[in-house]
Amino acid sequence: MKARYSLLTLMLGLLIQSGSAQNSTDAFRFSSYDILGSARFVSLGGAMGSIGGDLSTLNFNPAGLGIFQSSEMNFSPAIQYSANEALYNNQLGLDSKVNLNHGLLGMVGTYRLPQSEKTSGWKAINYGISINRTKNFHNTMYISGESFNSSLANVWRDMANGSYPEDLQAFSTGLAWDAYILDTIPGDPSHYYSNAPLGGVIQTYMEDSKGYINELSFAMSANYNDKLLLGFSLGIPSLSFQRQIKYNEYSIYIPESYEFDEFTYTEDLLTKGTGINAKIGLIYIVSPAIRINAAYHTPTYYGNLVDEYYAKIESLMGDGNSYLSESPIGNMAYQLSTPSRTMAGLSFFIQKKGFISLDYEYMDYSKSNLSSSTYSFANENSDIRTDFRATHNFRIGAEWRLDALSFRAGYNIISSPMNPEVNDIISTAYSWGLGYRIGNTYFDFAALKRKTDNSFYMYNPDYVNPASITNTSNNYIFTVGYKF
To answer: Is residue 43 within a helix (H) or strand (E), and if so which, with residue range?
Structure first.
């Protein structure tokens, strides 16, 4: 079946169909990133490719380390507020969630080469280490609406047809059979009918997710004649994703005795693993007023991802009987290779008062790849190649200084990673911030607001209408730093 699922979450239908939790949407979820890091970086919308001098550059353009003239350390805790509006069959559902996390913590050291002031050539070597949250999975969503011609029970019915009850899938159709959501046609034990009430149902979908990708980075940069800066970093991302879905249907009218009055499908998923990647970059100082930059990120290879998943159905029938059907706990180990990233940009400086910076990024999500020694992932990788495409992302930021106080603003737009006939994702973000310097200590604040619109199917899109989802994410970053 063609995958046409929301990019906000794993589609319920995929686990229902296969009993496996890995699919093309997982590849996207673990390949994408957020604009997170120091308050200065976030306030500029991530447009710091040629600016440098900030620890966040370890995760974007490590050549930016070469801008540092002294050693430095900083800490940037963050607060995220995420809210979703879901319009489904003309009914609006609202939900929100708050998360406090450690954000960025790191330091950079500088080493000026002997005789560098008297001779041309290599001037300095800088090195840095940081741990930074590059992706935040904390999110919650609620969808609700009446349906008179669609039920998840009908999806299970069509999936079950042709199989005997003992051969049904342990994470989906088998649960529906045991909970009396499905029944066999009299005289034909391999074909089924659903016990969905003919008068229609009210459907609700509740999803709660949490987790992160934290990346530990080690970086070095070299300065040639104070004109060319080269950088390299090694990243070790640590991934943790946890999600629970509760899908409920209950009858609008009093059901017949053989129909269900209500059922709830619950799905739990936990994913953990670590990966590795590398980044190279350069900054060329054309003049005191102009800098250009380029960077390349290798694919991130997650060699030890492990999923643990579980599902159950609780039902109440029209005759008053209730049932509980639970799956075993499923486990699967697999690997994921994410797309590479290529960046370029330039910045314009206005004396020593401020600058305007622009960055462009290319990333092809159709290059993600899932693999395992126990499963081919042929269909899932085919979905990735067919449904996803390259993105062209733009970031712009500006800063203006008035003595010890700095004012900053930024904007970034991410083009849709999916082909338009599958899903059209529109994502834009605005940011602003302030900075204050006193002696060797500095304090920064940033606020970034991202809005993402897309369509979401609660299950197989051949059976159900999409919900229109508007996700609004607000990030607030606080940085305290010290130069030494």
So the answer is: helix 39-43
The label of the residue with tokens 């966040």 reads 56
Predicted TM-score of the model (pTM): 0.89
The three-class DSSP label of residue 93 is strand
Q: Is residue 350 a part of any domain in this protein?
A: yes
For residue 31, give Cα distances in angstroms to 11, 13, 180, 423: 17, 21, 39, 18
- Domain of 52, CATH number, reads 2.40.160.60
- Across the chain, mean pLDDT equals 92
Would 128 be classed as within a structural domain?
A: yes
Q: Calculate the dihedral angle through the C-alpha atoms of 467, 84, 239, 48, rounding to the nearest 10 degrees.
A: 110
Q: Is 378 exposed, middle or buried (0-12, 13-18, 19+ CB in 10 A)?
A: exposed
Q: What is the pLDDT of residues 334-386, one digit of tens each?
A: 999 999 999 999 999 998 899 999 999 999 999 999 999 999 999 999 999 99
In-domain check, residue 368: yes
Residues 365 and 384: beta-carbon distance below 8 Å: yes
What confidence score (pLDDT) does residue 118 get?
67
- Which residue range(s) make up the domain with 381? 12-151+196-483
Task: Show the tokens assigned to 362.
Answer: 């290319």
Instruction: Count the domains in the chain.
Output: 1
Half-sphere exposure of 442 (CA within 13 A, CB side): 23
Phi, psi (degrees; rounded to nearest 5) at 177 = -65, -50
Whether 381 maps to a domain, the answer reads: yes
* Beta bridge pairs of residue 83: 96, 472
Question: pLDDT per residue over 189-242, tens digit each?
Answer: 999 999 999 999 999 999 999 999 999 999 999 999 999 999 999 999 999 999
Integer angstrom CA distances of residue 28 from 9, 136, 218, 368:
10, 14, 25, 8
Q: Is the pLDDT of residue 6 over 70?
A: no
Q: Could you tell me which residues come within 8 angstroms of residue 76 by beta carbon, excluding any fewer than 6 positions away?
A: 37, 38, 39, 103, 104, 105, 444, 477, 478, 479
Rounded Cα distance between 250 and 181, Å, is 12
Q: Is the pLDDT of residue 129 over 90?
A: yes
Dist CA 130 CA 58 (whole Å): 8
- Separation CA 385–CA 379 (nearest Å): 10
